[in-house]
Amino acid sequence: MYENDSAAEMYDLLYQDRKDYPAEAERVARLVRERNPGARSLLDVACGTGIHLRAFAELFERVEGVDLSRPMLDVAAGRLRTAGPKGVPLHLGDMRELRIEGRFDAVVCMFSSIGYLRSTDDLDRAVGAMSRRLEPGGVLVIEPWYFPETFLEGHVSGHALTRDGRTITRVSHSTREGDATRMELHYVLADAGGVLHRSEIDRLTLFTREQYEAAYRRAELKPEYLETSGAGPGFFVGTGA
Ligand SMILES: C[S@@+](CC[C@H](N)C(=O)[O-])C[C@H]1O[C@@H](n2cnc3c(N)ncnc32)[C@H](O)[C@@H]1O
Fold first, then answer.
1. CA distance linking residue 144 with residue 136, whole number of Å
2. 39 C-alpha to center of ligand 1: Å?
3. What atom in ligand 1 is closest to the CA of residue 2?
4. Alpha-carbon gap, residue 91 to 212, rounded angstroms
5. How far is the CA of 68 from the centre of ligand 1 (A)?
6. Over its length of 241 residues, how does the chain's per-residue pLDDT go in tens digits?
7. What DSSP element (H or E) covers 83?
8. Site to substitute for ligand 1 among 18, 68, 157, most atoms within 8 A of C-beta
9. Is the pTM of this model over 0.90?
């Protein structure tokens, strides 16, 4: 998963076309400021290629990102070179540990990245680590993966994009495997040099709503679950004391 430069680059090209990242960042900033009107700093956990971070840098004075994948962070570094007067520090790290200095008025974990964790112990560790990076009154926003009862067995999706002499297609097929989604992804990239096919299997845990809420409570945050209109998985929001 996102383990090499071409995978990170394909992810970046496809998803910036597929999702409205600036609108999502504005929505999250609103959720934060409704609970902490003076919020000035934000940490994006599992920031990927930094597309939300670029938008967050316009909305918060100080933003930083952390991700487990070096190739994803390399793409983020290119994107964020000119963002914000003080730049955007990017850290290689695991959301279950977060060995990062400093605290933030908001910590966010977007696009179901939390679903890559395999167990409720890991979920507790990650939510605990994120909550410890919050300033007093800080807000933790997590966009979960689907719940067992909202996951659609056999779900398929696809996307195609042509830009700068390159065409990329992505198709996915998801099935349930125990307490997780098994998502089979195929990418085909065509450019002047030829055609490249790659595929991967992603496994995302179908944590229950109660498991997310329990992780927030263990981290001494009061959880709220907010549904998103349409088919999105919603948001968990919690504010520290
Ligand atoms: C679906 S991508 C989302 C990236 C970005 N947040 C976005 O919205 O485009 C999932 C990201 O989670 C990261 N990730 C997965 N497990 C992680 C972990 N344990 N700690 C930190 N990052 C992780 C991956 O490297 C990848 O960049």
1. 24
2. 24
3. 25
4. 25
5. 7
6. 566 667 888 889 899 888 999 999 999 999 999 999 999 999 999 999 999 999 999 999 999 999 999 999 999 999 998 876 668 999 999 999 999 999 999 999 999 999 999 999 999 999 999 999 999 999 999 999 999 999 999 999 999 999 989 999 999 999 999 999 999 999 999 999 999 898 999 999 999 999 999 999 999 999 999 998 777 899 999 998 7
7. none
8. 68
9. yes
